[in-house]
Design brief:
five-stranded antiparallel sheet; four-stranded antiparallel sheet
């Protein structure tokens, strides 16, 4: 279990998470293993809650997929996770069963995405939500959401709000623990850098 958050404010996007892994009643804190719940794919960051088995699988899977439109908007996020579901079943032996009356096969994934195109949440049946302010997943989400709601209009940066949200989860949720990992970026700066990279690649390929 965990506390993960995404925040968008004043052109800045931040994603943050705690660093504790639990196995039932057992805690695996960072001094015993480097527990990184956020990973980067291109210009985007993904934070996950749930089974630790997902982390190496999705890092490898998304790292091998093409970059065009991967997490640019709600539609591209849905397309990416729909493509991923097929591979998860065929190559990584995903168990898609949750309940007998499931409307669709489950991907067994709950995650959040921070990309230059926005902040998104993805749930088991590939439901994609596009958030305007902030959101949280994991066992500490209620504490994080309350803290971020109270502070959103008072604090200036998305990074400050994200850190506060995870800190609240760590303070009150028994399955969350420090230190806090946080990544933030200015959306327009990242988009400009991405356009410059594509232009340079096009010039190089035309030579």
């Amino acid at each position: 279990m965990t506390t993960c958050v995404v925040v968008k404010k004043n052109g800045e996007i931040a994603i943050a998470a705690d660093s504790l892994v639990t196995f039932g009643d057992m805690r695996l804190a960072p001094p015993y293993e480097e527990n990184e719940k956020i990973f980067r794919i291109g210009d985007s960051y993904i934070a996950m809650a749930g089974s630790a088995a997902h982390f190496p699988v999705l890092r490898k899977l998304f790292g091998n997929m093409d970059d065009d439109g991967k997490f640019d908007d709600r539609a591209s996020v849905f397309e990416t996770f729909s493509r991923a579901h097929e591979v998860l079943k065929e190559k990584f032996f995903l168990n898609t069963k949750e309940e007998d009356d499931d409307p669709y096969e489950s991907s067994q994934i709950t995650c959040m995405i921070a990309s230059p195109g926005g902040i998104f949440g993805v749930y088991s049946y590939r439901e994609v939500f596009c958030f305007e302010r902030f959101w949280s997943i994991g066992s500490g989400r209620s504490f994080a959401l309350g803290a971020m709601y109270a502070a959103y209009d008072k604090l200036t940066t998305a990074r400050e709000i994200a850190e506060l949200g995870v800190a609240a989860g760590i303070e009150f949720d028994k399955s969350s623990g420090g230190p806090i990992r946080v990544y933030s970026f200015n959306c327009e700066e990242v988009k400009a850098a991405s356009r410059a990279r594509r232009a340079a690649q096009e010039i190089e390929s035309a030579r």
